[in-house]
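Hi support team,

I submitted a single chain yesterday and got back a structure, but I'm not sure I'm reading the token output correctly. Could someone confirm the output below corresponds to the sequence I sent? I've pasted both exactly as they appear in my results page.

Thanks,
R.
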Amino acid sequence: MLIRQFIVALWMLVPAAAIAQQPLWVQIEAQPNLTEAQARARSYAADLASVSGFSLGSGWYAIVLGPYSDADANATLVQLRAQGRIPRDSFIADGAAFRQRFWPIGAGAQAAPVPAPAPQSTQAEPGAEAPVAANLPNTTLPDESPRQARASEAALTAPEREELQRALEWEGFYTAAIDGDFGAGTRRAMGDYQQAKGYDVTGILTTKQRTALMTDYSSILAELGMQTVVDNKAGISLRMPAAMVSFSGYDYPFAHYQGAGTADNAPQVILISQQGSEATLTGLYDVMQTLQVVPREGFREKNRNNFTLTGQNDVISSYTYAERRGGIIKGFTLVWPSGDDKRMSRVIGEMRTSFTVLPGAVLDETQRQPGDDQAIDLVAGLELRAPRMTRSGFFVDTSGTVVTTADAVKECSQITVGDGEALKLVAADEARGWAILQPLAPLAPPGIAIFKDAVPRLKSDIAVSGFSYGGILGAPTLTFGKLADIRGLNGEAELSRLAVNVLPEDAGGPVLSADGTVLGMLLTRSPQGGRQLPDEVSFALNADALNAALKDAGVSMQRARRNGPLEPEDLTDLADKMTVLVSCWP
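Hi R., thanks for writing in. Yes, this is the structure output for that exact sequence:
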């Protein structure tokens, strides 16, 4: 604003006659860095013709329209202001302060005056469609010979050359490194682009061709309404697709920007802002991966001071970046409906490039008070990702082998235990109801099952350890009962009948005797011969049957005898160390 006022003041001191002798410009913005100025020029160029950009010196860059004659400059300024297509503080400049031209890429320093836009109504008659804004006429760019094209190309800055490569990459013609080096690969891409567009194939883009390429490249962002959003509470400034999302509220440590769509696939931008240490950043990295907005499939990378997460499924895709600077953590997540990845790759690039941490501002942990929308499956207003099914299981050896029920591992894209350790299915027997899992990465279990090396006594006390409530409590629950029989109802030798009232999620958990040894694995309840059994009747696959299954899978289990019952707290601790929550993910 200050530099605009300064230029206006200088312009007012120049005699009118002198101004009339030279082309004039409508200055619409000034930006303090080249990257932001190029982005804003691209955005304006998608809606307005005759957009140019010039360095002003001292690190400032002007975005202008023109050049115009005296009368046309004033007409353009008045009309576009009235239409709301340029800022209201836009003004006429004589260009005396303009230095090197940065937009359009490769354009020369001079341009012929263009006429003002045709008069256009800004009011719609009742019942009529809203008027469509007409573009300003484009400055005619004559095509060039290969020698002229190479000369204009030589004037490009390194960032401009890289941007051209990105545009060629976006159009599908360039696949090599973005390095600004116009070698054989870039020349081949330029030739392919020329051939596809019906130009003479020379491998050297003319100024006209470069402008057309960059206009197409920038139009994608213009459709999405990319604009700089400054969230002073979150302490973050970045460009985001304002046509897709708008601010919806704060919920520490997030600022939510929500878009239209179904609850499952609505676009979102989530700003991350909190105080924290390296440990906090690690915790945030783990928490983000439990949210619905970060699907399980995707790239994951964490360093000491930042992390990146991507995720995709059939419904949504997302990109998350967060960084730690001192005691502050800032970042953002972009969520979009699946299938729009190409456009969103441009948006992500713009967001990363423009992402700016504002000093001295961070969301307050008390920013939002508890409300009626609190739920155990929400984190700061974001829904936790839910597995298709959860069951219980337990460790049977020191390498992390887990036994669970067969129904727990059906139709799973991924199986995890505990805090997310991934396991693979080694063997399963649906008829007998067991499954054996082994970790994909080394896993050191805190405790393993020691199976009872003796025939258990009928009517003795037993306890089933399981995640009765699907992991909500964070630790397994012990449910106490009695050993009703060492055989099934039809005399099955591999089964034990229990008198215990359990929940479906307990299935797969260990059945412990009073001394802490394991008698077997709790099976999923199912009708017996079409008959619904009483609630307190359950069955376990006994130690001998589990031993046979494990032996066939190459796993050795441990058996032992113990003397006397354990104290309740000791039994609970032992069960807690061996029992795991098994999650089946869709």
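A quick pointer for reading it: Residues 1-21, 109-140, 372-378 have pLDDT under 50 and may be disordered. Let us know if anything else looks off.

Best,
Support desk
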